[in-house]
Write a structure and sequence with these properties.
By secondary structure, the protein is an alpha/beta fold. 64% of the residues lie in helices and 11% in strands. The chain folds into 2 domains: 2-306, ABC transporter transmembrane region fold (Up-down Bundle); 323-530, P-loop containing nucleotide triphosphate hydrolases (Rossmann fold, 3-Layer(aba) Sandwich), CATH 3.40.50.300. It has helices at residues 2-6, 9-41, 45-93, 97-100, 105-147, 149-196, 198-203, 207-259, 265-274, 276-306, 362-369, 392-396, 413-418, 425-434, 438-442, 461-474, 491-502, and strands at residues 323-333, 336-347, 351-356, 377-382, 385-386, 399-402, 479-483, 508-512, 526-530. A hairpin with a 2-residue loop joins strand 1 (323-333) and strand 2 (336-347). The radius of gyration is 34 Å and the shape is elongated. Residues 14-294 form the ABC transmembrane type-1 domain.
Length: 532
């Protein structure tokens, strides 16, 4: 993940150069103030007015450069976080479906929200601020040493003490950051779970139990936040002590040097103006360094989420498929065997109905054919090529799916049917007619431009199923896999849609269903019965 941020280091460098110019101008203005003070004391009017003019001009330039510096910093932050988020989503979409499903979705959500936000705040922003503070300290140290070496030695000693406190605090905070990240994930998983089962919670009157569990998990997260805040407070208190000592000690030294005639009164003004640029950067860095170092555990966690857990064996691309052969296929969930030594053949252009009792493995067989899971025994062969060796992208271009669970995007009906692909109006209208959506579309206020909300909460289950069917009919495919697609449709509509699908020539249809229409049975070339 750090590589993604490094790609924005060019913008970071430009932003830091602009910041360095701001620092130089600021220091020059403070020197100019010292010259004005010395000129005022010596009553040199010309020197005073000359210094004043230069100060005004430099202040105007400083204002402009400061604006540019802030703009460049924001541009760096934009590029860094965009690279980070884009690469994270790309890595997730590079996972195969069977690999993606091994993890709880909330783990990915936690990565997007909590972990990436932590990296943005504690790494992306801090790396700029820490380097900027170091530049500020270097320039100010050079200025101070030109006035008094004793003063610089005093400042360095206090600065070293302050830095040691920061490093010590970072060591403890790293542990708490790692634990908090894990607890955030658990909380995200639980929130997703209770929101998905809201109706079950209400119907079974377990709201109090769920709220109690939720508050317990929140308390654990907040306890870790409290520990981090407590360390921050202790560390901050010690830093404040060092800053006060630095402030008081600096003025004691410069006033003593002025009394002894070692430095001029103008130098007192210069030091007075720049002492904040010693104290503030040290205080700022001592709070930023611990959180910056602590992001190491967050980066590690993000890497674990996005990295593939196994090497891909996919190396064969296909452009069409003629025959799918299932040989001695076995698969189970944990200790329960669902499929064992299954042997079936599906030929190009033929239509197959797969029936069987609930739990006999019908839907599991389709998931294996979709590459959602890998076989645990035997194999699936496409034109004598092991399905495991075929690239997912090329295989998915040859198949289409109508699944039990239909997901709809919060977008227009048209985009939900086309899935953001380009089709002609004629193709879209044909899919709408064949799927039985015609009257539904005609009765909508904005027809195809009507918005579908929150996974279809503003339409019926039957309409969602028809949209899924229309999606599939739009695609150019060799194999259509149907999993209980007609369960949510009325009898006549389901029968007519099934008949339409079965009469499409040259495509292979594998329909897993417990809904059997006697009038359409003759349209199937073969009926396979799984289980007993």
């Amino acid at each position: 993940m750090k590589k993604d941020i490094r790609r924005s280091y060019g913008y970071l460098s430009i932003a830091l150069i602009a910041s360095f110019i701001v620092i130089i101008l600021d220091v020059y203005i403070s020197i100019n103030i010292g010259d004005m003070a010395n000129a005022a004391i010596s009553k040199d009017k010309n020197l005073f007015l000359g210094a004043a003019k230069i100060g005004i001009i430099c202040s105007l330039i400083l204002l402009l450069v400061n604006i540019v510096s802030d703009y460049l910093y924001n541009l760096y932050k934009l590029k860094a976080t965009s690279n980070l988020k884009c690469n994270y989503i790309n890595k997730i979409f590079n996972k195969r479906i069977n690999e993606y499903q091994k993890e709880n979705i909330a783990k990915y959500i936690s990565g997007f929200t909590n972990d990436i936000s932590t990296v943005e705040k504690d790494y992306v922003e801090n790396i700029y601020s820490i380097i900027k503070n170091i530049l500020r300290l270097i320039v100010t140290f050079v200025l101070i040493v030109s006035i008094s070496v004793r003063l610089l030695i005093f400042m360095v000693l206090l600065g070293v003490g302050s830095t040691l406190i920061s490093i010590l605090a970072a060591k403890f905070m790293k542990k708490y950051y790692k634990k908090r990240s894990g607890l955030y994930e658990e909380l995200s998983v639980y929130i997703k779970e209770i929101l998905n089962t809201f109706h079950i919670i209400k119907l079974n009157d377990i709201s109090e139990k769920i709220k109690s569990s939720y508050l317990n998990k929140v308390e654990k997260v907040e306890n870790e936040n409290y520990k981090i805040d407590k360390l921050d407070t202790i560390s901050g208190g010690l830093q404040e002590l060092f800053s006060k000592l630095l402030f008081i000690g600096t003025y004691v030294i410069i006033l003593y040097c002025t009394k002894e005639g070692i430095i001029t009164l103008g130098s007192v003004f210069v030091v007075g103006k720049n002492i904040q640029y010693i104290i503030n950067p040290i205080i700022d860095m001592t709070t930023r360094i611990p959180s910056f170092i602590s992001t190491k555990s967050v980066f590690k966690r993000l890497e674990e989420i996005k990295e593939s857990s196994f090497e891909s064996d996919e190396n064969v691309k296909i452009s069409n498929l003629e025959e799918i052969r299932i040989e001695d296929l076995s698969f189970g969930y944990e200790d329960e065997k669902v499929l064992e030594n299954l042997n079936l053949t599906f030929k190009k252009g033929h239509k197959y109905l797969v029936v069987g009792q609930s739990g006999c493995g019908k839907s599991t067989m389709l998931k294996l054919m979709r590459k959602y899971y890998l076989p645990q025994g035997g194999g699936i062969y496409v034109d004598n090529i092991n399905l495991n060796d075929i690239t997912s992208d090329s295989y998915y271009k040859c198949i289409s799916n109508i699944e039990q669970q239909v997901f709809l995007f919060e977008d227009t009906l048209k985009n939900n049917i086309t899935l953001y692909k380009n089709y002609t109006e004629e193709e879209i209208e044909n899919a709408i007619n064949l799927s039985g959506l015609r009257s539904f579309v005609d009765n909508l206020p904005n027809e195809l431009e009507t918005m579908i909300l929150d996974n279809g909460k503003n339409i019926s289950g039957g309409e969602k199923s028809r949209i899924a069917i229309a999606r599939s009919l739009l695609m150019k495919f060799d194999l259509l896999l149907i999993d209980e697609a007609f369960a949510n449709l009325d009898y006549e509509t389901a029968k007519n849609i099934e008949s339409t699908i079965l009469n499409i020539p040259d495509i292979t249809v594998v329909n897993v269903s417990h809904v059997i229409f006697e009038n359409n049975k003759t349209l199937y070339d073969e009926v396979y019965a799984l289980g007993s």
